[in-house]
Amino acid sequence: MTNYCFFPHITEPGPQEEDELYEMYMAETNRVYRYENETLVPYEEYWGTTPKYEMLNNKAVGAHAIC
Predict the structure, then answer these.
(1) 59 lies in which domain range?
(2) Which of 3, 34, 45, 60 has the most Cβ atoms closer than 10 angstroms to its Cβ?
(3) Is residue 1 part of a domain?
(4) Number of domains in the chain
(5) How do the residues of the chain divide into helix, strand and coil, expressed in percent and rounded to 5?
(6) Predicted pLDDT at 66
(7) Residue 2: partners with Cβ closer than 8 Å, 6 or more residues away
């Protein structure tokens, strides 16, 4: 017996592919900016991707926004 009978609004988990699709679609919403000349500038190379270590620069400040 599972707890699903006690909590009818909770459903069985979906297939693993659903998780992978969700993660992919969420990564597409990532917006990354660089700080240049007192302004935040889109870092378009990394838009819609998972943030990567390579985008970091020890002399720069980064901002990451999820919209």
Answers:
(1) 30-67
(2) 34
(3) no
(4) 1
(5) 30, 25, 45
(6) 52
(7) none
